[in-house]
Amino acid sequence: xxxxxxxxxxxxxxxxxxxxxxxxxxxxLSQMDSNSPSEIVLQPNDPIVVAxxxxxxxxxxxxxxGPNLGGEPNWRQRKPxxxxxxxxxxxxGHTWHHPDxxxxxxxxxxxxAMVGGTYKSEMLGYEDILSDxxxxxxxxxxxxxxxxxxxxxxxxxxxxxxxxx
Length: 165
Known about the structure:
The protein has a single domain (about 25-165), classed as Cytochrome Bc1 Complex, Chain D, domain 2. The protein starts with a helix and ends with a helix. The chain contains 8 helices and no strands. It is an all-alpha fold.
């Protein structure tokens, strides 16, 4: 089946920005003084893991990222306090642009710890709130909601990161 013109443009944008996302993710990972697993594998096809993740998401994440993963309004524009709003975790956001390990560490340690420097974020780490397994369950739930072509792209990102380690 032939792709429509707008689909080709989307692909070019997605792959064109991939290198920058990958470099930033790898840099963030290298800056972590981590006490977490070195490899994370999400389980979006495991119905038990996804169900548990959905429950935890509702309790811990939905108040900022929205009950339907939609994030806060105007999530690309800074708030008056200078911090960024919570982004969506659905296909309209950028969650799927980051490898599993970066998503895991951002959730565990917080955005400021991943980005480094003086970056301030309202996304605090869940290291003292959720277990590693619970973080994997939440991220597995989020990934389970993405369309198949986004899951495939996300899997490619994970594979490229694994090959560079």
